[in-house]
Amino acid sequence: MQRKKLDNRGTWSRKPAKVQEEPEKKSLGPVPSDLEAKKAYLEQWALDNRIPGKIQSWYSVPSKSETSDWRIRTQNLTKTNRVLSLEGPYKGAKPPKIVLDIDAQIRKPHLQKFRKSILQIWFRATGDGRYGIAVQNILHTAEATREFKTFLNYLQHEHSKEILCCHQMQVRPVQVFDPAHPAPGSHITLHKGFGSDYLPIAGTGKTFNIIDWTPLAKEPWIGLPKRIREAIHPAKDDKFLECYAGTGYIAESLAPHFAATFAVDARKVSRQTPNVRYIQSTVDKEFFPKFFSGKFKEGKWTVYLDPPDGKALAGNVIPVLAAQGPERILLNSSNLTVAAMEIKRFRREGYMLRKIIPLDIEPGKDFFQVLFLFVPDRAGLLGRHEERSTKVIKRRENQSFHAEEPSEIVHFTQKRRR
Known about the structure:
It is built from ten helices and 17 strands.
């Protein structure tokens, strides 16, 4: 007689294995605005995520309202009722006198048509008490245009020392423009009123375009390159690459301390960086092999990554970058959840976390950044990868940079108002 096959024979006495569930990580909640609370917040994150290394002293510079960006913005209460409101660098900030004076001026009866055309007015601070003004409005009538010229004359006669320039900005399709978050595919036209498109960055000798992104508080940002230099101690023959560079201020400020300095950003904004070779390109997995292919790009490199809005790096960027063997990798992140994942990804590629440097880049605001310094695991401390070579990057076959899709580019044009 043929025995009936029992599929589960010999398993009756077995007990199902208990699956050990990992305890859920506690959410830290929203970022506090107080510096001491920020310190506790970061320490708790490092403890919960088992982040190696000691947190170094916080980089924090007191910031004044006179050296920060301000904005007058239109808010719609109803379909027919709109009001103008002041927005500062942080909640409770006291507006400087120049901002209050201009806010009072545009509310006067003889500028009524111009006032109704306003979407927003940006006060872009230089960091030393002066400003450049960018007015985003829609001038539908001749009266509104004439009143805008009256406003320009007022600025030139009454505030020529504090206001360095004023330009009209138009965005298509129509939307409120934010230098930190330009909408993909939008077209920005700058009609020149008076003054230059470039604003000085305090007394540094550097400049930024009035429609380019900078932190709202300028004083901490101005001192940031020095803090970065103190963290990495570059040698004279080292080279520097700033990714997601924006104005290129970090690279331009560090240029005297490196043999060669480069910056890369995808946005088409005109910039003045005489000591930096600026590249317009997206930062993706195809960028780094092409960048490090040139003969003049041999050497020991420091790569500075500052992805916008605390976003994660694009897919496969970390393994591709690690394969190039840079001497140092700096990651500046404002999102600790993303940063914890990026640290693990760098470890898998043989780069260990050397320093954790907190940056209170916008004091008084529920926001801070952390600068993570990664170096190759030369001693095999991670225990999972072969020892990283410390030899300099070698030349590879030269390739051209990847062209961007037209829909992903923010276009900027300039026109002089007649």
